[in-house]
Amino acid sequence: MSNNVPAIAFFELTDVEAGLSLEILSHATGIDGASLQPVLQTLKRHDAIEEIDGRYRITVELFRRWVLQLTVTSDQ
Fold first, then answer.
1. Beta-bridge mates of residue 21
2. Chain centre to alpha carbon of residue 38
3. Cα(28)–Cα(9) distance, rounded to whole angstroms?
4. Measured distance CA(1)–CA(13) in Å, rounded
5. At 16, is the secondary structure helix, strand, or coil?
6. How far apart, in whole angstroms, are the C-alpha atoms of residue 3 and residue 19?
7. What are phi and psi of 16, to 5 degrees?
8. 69 vs 22, 29, 55, 73, CA distance in Å?
């Protein structure tokens, strides 16, 4: 698994105010839910994301910007 898996997964969350379900995140990124779940739990513990009604969204602006920058940098 690539070191950029969390960045790729969370790039999907950077522009979605309402958040995304685990199923949608998994489908959008091609990463199975079982692999995403530990990442989501870690980020929830650090208050970087929140889960409301099964939908995840980034809550920390600095984290959102970092994910965007990391994703853009890895594409180059």
1. 55
2. 11
3. 8
4. 20
5. coil
6. 23
7. -125, 105
8. 23, 17, 23, 6
Q: Are 23 and 33 in contact (CB under 8 A)?
A: yes
Q: Which two tokens stand for residue 55?
A: 């939908």
pTM (2 decimals)?
A: 0.70
Cβ(68)–Cβ(11) below 8 Å? yes
Q: And the tokens for 59?
A: 């809550």
**Do 43 and 33 touch, CB atoms closer than 8 A?**
no
pLDDT (tens, 9 = 90+) of the chain, 76 residues, equals: 344 555 556 666 666 778 889 998 888 778 899 998 998 898 899 998 899 999 998 888 887 788 777 766 655 5
